[in-house]
Amino acid sequence: MRTVTKLSLCLFLNATPILGLAQQAPQQANPVIEEVIVTGTYIRRQSQFDSPSPLITIGYEDIGKLGVNQVSDVIERLTINTGSQNRPDAFTQNFTTGTSNVNLRGLGVSSTLVMLNSRRQVQTALATNRGENFVDTSSLPPMIAFDRIETLKDGATALYGSDAVAGVVNFITRSNFEGFDLQLNLQTVEAHPQDDTELSGLYGVGNDRTHLLAAFSFLNRDPLSTNDRRLSGPTDDLSAVGNPGTFLIPSLPGNPAFAPLWTAAFDSDLNGVADAVQPLRGLPPVPGAQTPFFVDPDCSTIAAQDPKVVPNVVQAAPNPAGDVAVGGCQFDFGGYYSLVPEEDRTQVYLELTHGFSDRLDARVEFHVADNEARRNNSPSFPIPGLTPVGLGHPDNPFGADVQWLGRVIGAGGTAIESVHDSETWRFAASLTGDINDRWGFDAGIQISENEIFSAITDVLTDRLEDALAGLGGSGCDPATGMPGAGGCVYYNPFGSALTGTGAANSPALLNHILAGFAYEATNELTTLDGVITGELGEISGGPVGIAIGAQLRDQQLSYDYNEQANNDNFRFLVGNPDFGNSRDVTAAFVELALPVSQTLDLQLAARIEDYGDGVDSTDPKATFLWRPNLSFSVRGSVGTSFRAPSLFQAFGTQTSLEQLADPLNPGTPQFFPVRTQPNPSGTPLRPEEADVANLGFSWSITDSVELGIDYWSFDYTNVIIQENAQALLNAEAAGDPDAAAQIDRDALDGLVRVNPFYANASSLETDGFDLSLVYNAGTRMADISLGAEATFVSSYDLVDPQAGVIDGTGQRNFANFATSVPELRGTLFFNWQRGNHGINVYLNHVDAYTDDEGGPGAFEPVASFTTVDAQYNFAFDTNIGVTLSFGAINLFDEDPPYLSTNFGFDSKVHDPRGRLWYGRASFAF
């Protein structure tokens, strides 16, 4: 049976940074003669070091040294990765809990192509808050099944098509493994009740023609809440919308306890109408008028018992019957959320290879991944805008029609769970063969699908309005019932419902008002592809290699929301219409490998990809590798890449929750619904395009010292973004009528919803340097490797349609479409091995940057973050291979840098868990 050898890479792996081969090593005196296909080319080569593309390889043993138990943790240790959404964050990424992704160069989680055994994998049906779909790396086969992870660090559209703008991450399985490996991983957060327990197994068996590989993994992850580990400051999580709430009183209160203070604060002309309300009543405006907000009379009483309730009193008057105060009743929601979600994950992988003859091989793969995640949220969402409560409400203490600013459940409430279930399956089959001694082919099919179910509780608008009018409850017909009579009851929004001085809200009434916002989403991908490779003759440096290929892709995306969501009947989440669409993609490419001389190789490639409806792209790429001697090589590449608009961006609608500061109503930022949809102008989205370049070298300074440096550059245009909701609000305040047309407000100019569009509206230029330095020494006492790997971002300049021209280097980029971009990320490592004993130590550093969440001119520093990981392992001398590993991630228990925002840290850059202890037992049979 013909085989394509998978190199162990041991020749260079011990002499490279922590994540394997960060740069190409120079050609060695004793090269491996078997031909291989590596990421970045379809033409077989003697080794991956013959490829002119910048490639990082993370081997199976490297992953074990890191001590991590998830693919996402491996990716996050790549210094070229920044901005991945791998941790739950209800405040900036509402939908992606339980998933993980890649974000090379900070170009977006959809701008890196993720493949499994060099073939595409379906993207998750989920989208980020900004409408980006991505391959969920948590939906891949078990990590124990991976032989290596190859990461191509420059654009690869010319070979692989759409999405390979920032590069390619290719997960390659241990196809030739024989035996049975069993691993038990235990990980715990020190001083906090969060544990991971994972059991994994790998089985391989075969003969000269047929080989079977089977892998499984079961992960049980306990949750860690912000109540257990609170990183935010005392004011970071204060909401002006609570229960007890705050009440706007437009006209003179009939209750004499409130009238004097109301008149003194809000009615300068003593006409019984609040000054701020007069223009809405056709009366003359009063300059400097204040909004007539009163604190719930029972706010202070409840705050004395529940620290989550925080009165914000601006002015008060003594009153024996209760508090009479101007201001608001705030709610601290920061202790309800998840830093780590509860998860149960099952992954199974099967692979069968068979050689029909010396010239024809077949391969079949199947895997399924099921992940059930649960994330905590506050007891109920805030109700956007102001809700009227009439004078006739029996618990209304003000004696006037009022407007309520609050939430249905606040003080005394418990966290509610949101459900995030994901199931992914994939089938792939291929035939690989030799036509003759010079020509071969590879043809395959891949079918994969991701199904999502998500649900969370929110208030139903019609039932809340009915209940405030006394027509609430499952036993009431609002069309025929009498307020507060028979089966019809009032919902009491006042603090008296909690103190017992008013009517309490029964669980049955609350269950009637609240309901599940739920949807099911499916994304399907089918690909058919074929490649013919061969030789066109010889030139001075050797045979000219060629690869010609074609691909057909069919993608189908559908979203099905429940009825209440279809009716836009949720008060906070609003709702969404069902939608679905599909498209077919055709592509063809050609690749040439030109050995110009014994020291210079050129690689030329071009690809045409057509999506229909005028969406297409032609992308060329040229690379070179110059090796003047065995110790030095220079590589370079230049080309174009593109990413087609996703089906979600082209046809989908998504309502998310974002923390916004309304310039027309200054105060504490609050959460509001943001509904993003295709541009109603009907202008189709164009593909994102990028000009990509890379220039680097590898130098064996001595037999033990390797140095590698790469300069990289990306000029990214036509970037598809979700218009920034905060920027739209700022533009509205500055008088922009187009921005104002995309914002919904209530009768008193309270913010209800922002409606941005998806648009080709931005550009991004970024460049920088990757550095790799390693020293490797083998002595009679021990084998030692030490070195460094770093990425320095020289520039990250973007143009945002609302935020303008931004120098995003060293910024969080909260107020634009980009992500957090520290200037420097680096790792120092030390590996020591003597006999059965091994020690691995890593020092990880993320540079300081600034936070722009406060708006223009309000930048706050985010400190640098340096952690140490350490591991000891011991291999027993037994008939059964037994290895025990013990270690700590973040050994010195460093807290993530403080960020003045919800959660108190940047979830896209830093790990909030503190010190993690872990142990692993591996058994090889």
Q: Can you put this structure into words, describing what you see?
A:
This protein has 925 residues and is mainly beta. The chain folds into two domains: 10-231 and 339-377 and 418-457 and 518-924, Maltoporin, Chain A; 238-332 and 381-414, no CATH class. It is built from 13 helices and 43 strands. The strands form seven sheets. It has a 22-stranded antiparallel β-barrel. A five-stranded mixed sheet has the order 1-4-5-2-3. A four-stranded antiparallel sheet has the order 12-11-19-18, with no helix packed on it. Strand 6 (179-189) and strand 7 form a beta hairpin. The longest helix is centred in the last third of the chain and has 9 residues, at 725-733. The radius of gyration is 30 Å and the shape is elongated. Mean pLDDT is 90; it is low at 1-33.
CATH fold annotation of the largest domain: Maltoporin, Chain A
% residues in beta strands: over 45%
Number of helices: 13
Oligomer: single chain
Q: CATH top level of the largest domain?
A: Mainly Beta
Query: How does the helix and strand content classify structurally?
Result: mainly beta
- Cα Rg: 30 Å
Which residues form runs of ≥5 with pLDDT under 50?
Answer: 1-33
User: What is the overall pLDDT average?
Assistant: 90
The helix content, as a percent range, equals: under 10%
The CATH architecture of the largest domain would be: Beta Barrel
Number of domains: 2
Q: What is the fourth-level CATH superfamily of the largest domain?
A: TonB-dependent receptor, beta-barrel domain
Number of strands: 43
N-to-C span = 26 Å
Shape: elongated
Largest sheet: 22 strands, antiparallel, barrel
